[in-house]
Amino acid sequence: MGPGALSDLLGEMMHIRDPRVLVGYDTSDDAAVLAVDEDRCLIHTVDFFSPVVDDPYLFGQIAAANALSDVYAMGGEPFSALNIAALPEALPKQAAQGIMAGGAAVVTEAKALLVGGHTIASRELFFGMAVTGWCCPTDLLTNAGAQPGDVLLLTKPLGTGIVLNALRGDLLSLGDCHAMLDSMVQLNGLASRHFKTPAVHACTDITGFGLAGHALEMARGSGVELHFAFEKLASYDGSLTWASMGLVPQGTYANKEAFASAVLTEGLELCEEDLVFDPQTSGGLLIATAPDSARELNTLLKNHSVASRIVGRVVAGPPRVIVSRR
Amino acid sequence: MKQVDARTLACPQPVILTKKALETNKEVVTLVDNETSVQNLQRLGRHLNCRVDVESMASGEFRLRFCRMADEPTAEHQKTTPSLSTEGDSPQGRNFLIGRETLGHGDEQLGRILMKAFLYALTETDPTPNQVILLNSGVKLAFDPETRESLQLLKERGTQIAGCGTCLDFFGLTDGFDLGEVTNMYAIVEVLQGPDTLSL
Asked: Are A184 and A229 members of one domain?
């Protein structure tokens, strides 16, 4: 659902106040976090969507990696997961099994337990997971802790929305974009296990609202201004070309409408702007970290097969995002 | 004139069908029923160097008329579909596909010198090349300080520089390529099939 429509719908529900709720609706964070006792907090998140690729097992993997990501973005470890599936009656049994198997494999890789789920018959196919994770209250990472002077790291390239659209239009095959698909299956836990508070101040994962929307949520949550250098941002092969050909997903336009007033792009071409607002499926982590440890963390992540890049910095200023060329 | 009825079709089908129709027709009319499709079709029009006229109809639907431009974009084209490039209304230059780090056959050392001279001369030509695509060992030109300087200059003058992703990967240069977009074979084929492309 689009960002504007969502906050309209939630309305008053967004203002629940309870000391047990550490992270709720109000900062538009990745997951809900509840205090259990002094040593533990629970992280709850749920995510599902219609197929992004025409390969059941791969779709299951991507959906699971995407659902688990929110737990990692909060600094937590996933503990258990439940499947959520809506399956058309005409869907071949093998395809349904493929989706479930792909999802289960990724949960296992995350060392979490897949312990059940809920499936309904539906005209449209959906698959995803509800994930429960946990962390120590002191390890909790929100999108609200970025500080002026921080350096911004992004752990995956951008452009899944555009490239998946080109894939949907049969302009390329799954084999042509295997690098992107591998990256979408890659768990963000591969990155998050290497950093922690207090050196890292804030973290969020880049999903449906695009880099623009999730960075803005961080800017608003933290009360800072985020600066990105477009030339430092990585994009998946072909995404800029496909965007300039008009393979821009509907979500990009929705994101522009919702966020463009507080996300300024300076000197960017239209296709580059499209990339900044492109909705991501199983996107990377955006990390705000203390400047003295940023380079070291970036190298550490790269050494562990994470496509991390230093992409920007945090400055004192109004809560907004600026993307300029360099 | 070919008509494409893309009403009720979801993204990206209107773009795919129109693109296909424009491969064999100079003029195409596409009907769509949502704003997203209109904006995406306008991007397609610019990409394929077409004039695009948009008409919104009382029914809430849109009628887009595409007309493939022969060579140079006309003033009218500029007005209806603002160019992506910041160059404004300068005539469109050629596309160059550079598949090697040397120019000509024979002595390799001479070939390197010639390539440097060629790229330098290219920065002084008018119109500025539209696109320079680097392929195979040609991607190394983006890293040699002397040829890089010329490519950088071309880029500043509005030429799109692109490097073949497979080739950059092969030479382990993907991370450092910052002169432009990393492209793929589909985009390269597209450019090669278009007018005004020279392979070196």
From this structure: yes
- Asked if the structure places residue A280 within a domain, the reply is yes
Chain A positions in Cβ-Cβ contact with residue B19 (cut-off 8 Å): 245
User: Could you give the C-alpha distances from A66 to A22, A131, A308, in angstroms and in order?
Assistant: 22, 10, 18
Residue B85: inside a domain: no
Query: Does residue B195 fall inside a structural domain?
Result: yes
Neighboring chain A residues of B178 at a CB cutoff of 8 Å: 231
> 3-state DSSP helix/strand/coil percent for chain B, to nearest 5?
40, 20, 35
A225 or A25, greater pLDDT: A225
Residue A126's domain spans which residues? 31-139
Mean pLDDT of chain B: 83
The alpha-carbon gap from B47 to the nearest alpha carbon of chain A, in Å, equals 6
**Pure H helices in B81-175:** 108-123, 145-156, 165-170
As given in the structure block, the two tokens for residue B97 are: 């596909």
* Residue B82, pLDDT above cutoff 50: no
Residue B127 lies in a domain: yes
pLDDT tens-place string over residues A187-225 = 999 999 999 999 999 999 999 999 999 999 999 999 999
Residue of chain B with shortest Cα separation from A167: B12
The span from the CA of A308 to the CA of A310, in Å, is 7
Q: Is the pLDDT of residue B81 over 90?
A: no
Measured between alpha carbons, how far is A242 from A274 in angstroms, rounded to an integer?
10
Domain that holds residue B33: 2-80
Angle (nearest 5°) at CA B180 between A258 and A301: 75
pTM: 0.74
At residue B71, the pLDDT reads 52
Residue B15 sits at the chain A interface (C-beta within 8 Å): yes
Cβ under 8 Å to B: A residues 208-237: 231, 235, 237
CATH number at residue B113: 3.40.1260.10
Q: So what's the ipTM on this one?
A: 0.85
Of A168, A231, A238, the CB nearest to B12: A168
Q: Are residues A163 and A261 in the same domain?
A: yes
Give the CATH number for residue A67. Answer: 3.30.1330.10
Q: Are residues A175 and A288 in the same domain?
A: yes
Task: Answer whether A7 touches B (CB < 8 Å).
Answer: no
Contact call for B84 and A271, based on CB within 8 A: yes
Same domain flag for B50 and B136 = no
Nearest CA in chain B to A176: B184
